[in-house]
């Protein structure tokens, strides 16, 4: 007899088929070349690769589609009967390039009912302008320092140059990606959508685990909701919990790109986070909070080397430079030039990556009342003018996460 249990099994079958279908499309476009390359290396065959253009935003909208499929199956939301509403969720333009990855159950109600008020529109404009300033005025200039450092022939540099370069990248990737997220959230707010923050000052974290609760929050929530928890999360044996952590971080690495450096980067964090859970968490919590922040920053900076440099040889050479093993000394002319020309940029970026600026913003509004709003309006106007001037003068500099 056909009963509810049969319907549930049928629904599960369709859910799995749809997920496999969508993941297969993503895997083909994103990992086809990587797979063929490695088969050629292992077998000695000279297999030819057809260069396929990566569909714009495929990683982001694939995850959003999977979110919809699973949320409907679990009964978190109703199936969407209107194709236009579903298409709006999947391809809404502020999110499609680089997120944030809003889960369908969180966005469902606003697909039908939302209000665009002057206050919400104004808040959206503020958010967009701050994101624009982050990207154009800070991230783009930091990227020039990192490109200059990693372009040094043979990576022959001093330890200080290596550290300044990777710190520049550490700040660059934050301002680039959080800048885009702010712009997307701001645009969404102007259209009546309310999306949660995607970054929460990750560089003040006291552990790697906390860092990933503050960095790219929407992606972390997606992996937790649709991979980690279905695998059993931490409510399983230590061995299975270890498996779950490494599965999530292997997928995280692969999601960012089809290259071994991303896999190593993902496994690196899998190891660190597992060690924090079983060994490091208690002794770390007893340390001074500033020591905890420095520990986390050290881990993150080390990880960003693996994230951006493509070859294993480059990665180890850069590490050797950082720790004076293979460097040309402690300080060289490149390091002195970077300090002399960019110390103000580093200072602004470091302060901007902490709650300092938000505290200053709130303090101005509180202390100066209406005059504070006038001051902030002038400040935003200056950011817009400087950003436009910079965009006109500079060459095209795409958002880093567009390629993921």
TrEMBL record:
Keywords: Acyltransferase, Cell membrane, Membrane, Transferase, Transmembrane, Transmembrane helix. Pfam families: MBOAT. It comes from the Bacteria. The keyword Acyltransferase applies. Its main location: membrane. Signal peptide: none annotated. The chain crosses the membrane at residues 12-32, 52-74, 157-175, 245-271, 291-307, 345-361, 373-393. It is found in: Cell membrane. It is a multi-pass membrane protein. InterPro entries: Ac/AlaTfrase_AlgI/DltB, AlgI, MB_O-acyltransferase, MBOAT_fam. Belongs to the membrane-bound acyltransferase family. PANTHER family: ACYLTRANSFERASE, TEICHOIC ACID D-ALANYLTRANSFERASE. This is MBOAT family protein. It comes from Peptostreptococcus equinus.
């Amino acid at each position: 007899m056909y009963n509810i249990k049969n319907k549930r099994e049928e629904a599960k079958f369709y859910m799995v088929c749809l997920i496999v279908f969508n993941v297969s499309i993503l895997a083909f476009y994103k990992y086809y070349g990587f797979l063929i390359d490695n088969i050629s290396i292992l077998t000695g065959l000279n297999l030819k690769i057809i260069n396929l253009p990566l569909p714009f935003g495929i990683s982001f909208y694939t995850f959003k589609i999977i979110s919809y499929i699973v949320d409907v199956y679990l009964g978190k939301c109703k199936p969407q009967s209107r194709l236009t509403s579903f298409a709006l969720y999947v391809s809404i333009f502020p999110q499609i390039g680089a997120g944030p990855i809003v889960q369908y159950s969180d966005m469902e109600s606003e697909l039908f009912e939302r209000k665009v008020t002057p206050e919400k529109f104004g808040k959206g404009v503020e958010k967009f302008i701050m994101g624009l300033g982050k990207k154009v005025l800070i991230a783009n200039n930091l990227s020039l320092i990192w490109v200059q450092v990693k372009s040094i022939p043979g990576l022959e540099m001093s330890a200080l140059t290596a550290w300044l370069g990777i710190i520049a990248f550490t700040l660059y990737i934050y301002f680039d990606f959080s800048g885009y997220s702010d712009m997307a959230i701001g645009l969404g707010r102007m259209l009546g959508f309310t999306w949660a923050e995607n970054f929460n000052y990750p560089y003040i974290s006291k552990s790697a685990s906390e860092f990933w609760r503050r960095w790219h929050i929407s992606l972390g929530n997606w992996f937790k909701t649709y991979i980690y928890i279905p695998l059993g999360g931490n409510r399983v044996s230590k061995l299975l919990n270890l498996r779950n952590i490494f599965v999530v971080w292997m997928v995280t690495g692969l999601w960012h790109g089809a290259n071994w450096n991303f896999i190593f980067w993902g496994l690196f964090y899998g190891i660190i986070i597992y060690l924090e859970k079983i060994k490091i968490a208690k002794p770390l919590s007893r340390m001074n909070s500033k020591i905890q922040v420095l520990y986390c920053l050290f881990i993150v900076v080390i990880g960003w080397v693996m994230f951006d440099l493509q070859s294993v040889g480059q990665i180890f050479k850069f590490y050797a430079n950082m720790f004076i093993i293979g460097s040309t000394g402690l300080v060289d002319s490149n390091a002195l030039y970077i300090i002399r020309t960019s110390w103000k940029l580093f200072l602004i970026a470091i302060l901007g990556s902490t709650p300092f600026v938000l505290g200053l913003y709130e303090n101005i509004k509180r202390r100066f009342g209406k005059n504070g709003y006038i001051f902030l309006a002038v400040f935003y106007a200056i950011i817009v003018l400087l950003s436009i001037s910079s965009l006109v003068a500079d060459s095209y500099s795409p958002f880093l996460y567009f390629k993921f």
